[in-house]
Amino acid sequence: MFETLSTLFDGASARADDRLKDVYAVELIEQRIREAETNLSAAKTTLASLIQRQRSETRLAEALDKRLFSLTERATEALRAKREDLAAEAAQAIADMENEREIRRQTLDRLDTRIVQLRGSVEAAHRRIVDLKQGAITARAIRREHAVQSRLSRTVAGTSAADEAEVLIRRVVDQDDPFEQSQILRDIDRGLDGEAAADKLADAGFGAPTRTTAGTVLDRLKKDL
Predict the structure, then answer these.
(1) pLDDT at 99 over 90
(2) Do 108 and 57 touch, CB atoms closer than 8 A?
(3) Do 143 and 195 have their domain in common?
(4) I want to staple 87 with a disulfide (CB 3.0 to 4.6 A). Which of 53, 79, 166, 195 is the partner?
(5) What is the number of domains present in the chain?
């Protein structure tokens, strides 16, 4: 039972973590890029330190070579002058210096190897960060596109601002004409109180006219001619 609950909890936690990553994916990408840039900066500093040490070791090795060359010439001259005591002392110094030179050469070899490796890593990291920044630009563009698409989908589907606007337009367009309605009401009232029947009879010539008609106006105009 406990193992089942633990498994369910782990699954829910993983799903929640995935949802958070989906929501904040762009922010997480930018954070990881900043961390990669920090690591790259540290690697560059280390590379610069190694190169500086390499140059220092090279200068020391060159100075040592010059001292060895000078001391070897002096020891040779001492031997020619039969001063083996001085030559022996110089020989010991030369041996010590040659041992030191060998150590410096090994150090330079190790530095060369580390510098080549680290330089390659720095260049690869730099290229990868450039690619990541391009990917982040693409991710931000896609996120904006999804946001716009989501808003558009909400507008197109279901009750939306566009739907409400269409409903309001139909309400205005479909409204009854108040003038026409008042005319209809007057006609109804006249029918109810008998005016309509009287008008019909008067128009037919029975009784005095109840209203001015076009025929009445024409007759009046003819009389004035």
Answers:
(1) yes
(2) yes
(3) no
(4) 79
(5) 2
The domain of 201 spans 176-223
Q: Token digits for 112?
A: 């060369």
Contact criterion met (CB below 8 Å) for 78 and 35? no
Q: Are residues 76 and 132 in the same domain?
A: yes
pTM: 0.54
**Domain co-membership, 96 together with 16:** yes
* Residues with Cβ within 8 Å of residue 25, at least 6 apart in sequence: 139, 143
Q: What is the pLDDT of residues 104-150, one digit of tens each?
A: 999 999 999 999 999 999 999 999 988 888 888 887 877 777 766 76
**pLDDT at residue 9, rounded to an integer:** 45
The tokens describing 67, both together, are: 């001292």
Q: Which residues fall within 8 angstroms of residue 101, CB to CB, at 6 or more apart?
A: 61, 64, 65, 68
Closest CA to 31 of 132, 120, 157: 132
47 plus 20 within the same structural domain: yes
